[in-house]
Write a structure and sequence with these properties.
The chain is α/β, with parallel strands linked by helices. The chain is built from 6 helices and 7 strands. It is 48% helix and 21% strand.
Length: 136
């Protein structure tokens, strides 16, 4: 399962990547600190899951969220932010966030959510019919 990490803090991106690298079957396909860069890489790399901060350099994570959720095959988006006030939560959910977590109190939940998504992803892959030549 391909994961993209977007956060304005290099330290936090490293922590998220370190946390997820422990999971078997996860491929980190990129990371970004600025909103425009995140949007460009998400479009190019087509991750299955995106962790996204609201406060980003060069724009808002909410704008990135709205843009990537316009596509019918949008990734699962986990908002992971210090801006966890009810208005941000409401705006994020309305914009299409699949999960909304407070960095300061719910950081460790990211691993469990990704593991659950990975389990679901793997069971879907196993059930997918193979082509007549036995390939994917």
């Amino acid at each position: 399962m391909k994961v993209f990490v977007a956060d304005n803090s290099a330290l936090l991106r490293e922590q998220i990547i370190g946390l997820l690298s422990e999971l078997r079957g996860i491929e980190i396909v990129g990371q970004a600190q600025a909103a425009p860069e995140a949007l460009r890489h998400i479009r190019e790399r087509k991750p299955d899951v995106v962790t996204l901060d609201i406060q980003m350099n060069g724009g808002s994570g909410l704008d990135v969220l709205k843009e990537i959720k316009r596509n019918g095959s949008a990734p699962v988006v986990i908002i992971l932010t210090n801006s966890a006030s009810p208005p941000y939560r409401k705006s994020s959910i309305e914009a299409g966030a699949d999960f909304f977590l407070d960095k300061s109190t719910e950081f460790e939940k990211v691993r469990g959510i990704i593991q659950s998504l990975l389990d679901r992803f793997n069971s879907t892959e196993a059930e997918a019919p193979k082509d007549r030549f036995g390939g994917d």
